[in-house]
Amino acid sequence: MLLIETQADVDKGAAWLARAEPCFAAALKLTGPLPLRLKPDGFSALLDAIVSQQVSLASAAAIWQRLTSAGLDDPERMKKASDDDLRAVGLSRPKMRYARALAGADLPYADLRRLPDDVVIARLTEVTGIGRWSAEIYAMQSLGRRDVFAAGDLALQEAAKLVFALADRPTESALRAMAAAWSPNRGVAARLLWAYYRVHKSRA
Residue 108 region, left (φ>0) first, then alpha (ψ -120 to 50), else beta? Predict the structure, then answer.
């Protein structure tokens, strides 16, 4: 199991990618050092991923602020919350169902830290509302898995189009196939692509 635990791990992975792929070397000159992008694991982190599904970053941040202010990032409080409570913080009806399913799943969060990447993804996606994107984001950012890559992420797809000068934004399956060449540093490649996308957006 390959992990990102420190900034040195990210820097080492970025150097490997720059040696392996000239397009990444050029991108790194624009982005500079890549961020660590590590968060705590547990219920709150997965709930945050659910909140972020299919909404803008600004909307997700606003909902998350209201949700945490109401103490609903605690699984026991989430189990007891009414529809009105969840509607008040901005959750849609599907996300109410997903949040309750996550709270009721009682996932073995400590055990997930020790399981192989594919087992973690499989276990998480058994929970209603946790798709592959959410599971991979959790594995990358909360468990620090160095070789996990969320190919379904639209920002990663758009960044890959820019970095590799593609005619069209790659599909999830096409980007996953591309990313195979970046193993064992696919999680670092994601950090590089996200950083490049931010630079591009700021210039645009």
Answer: beta
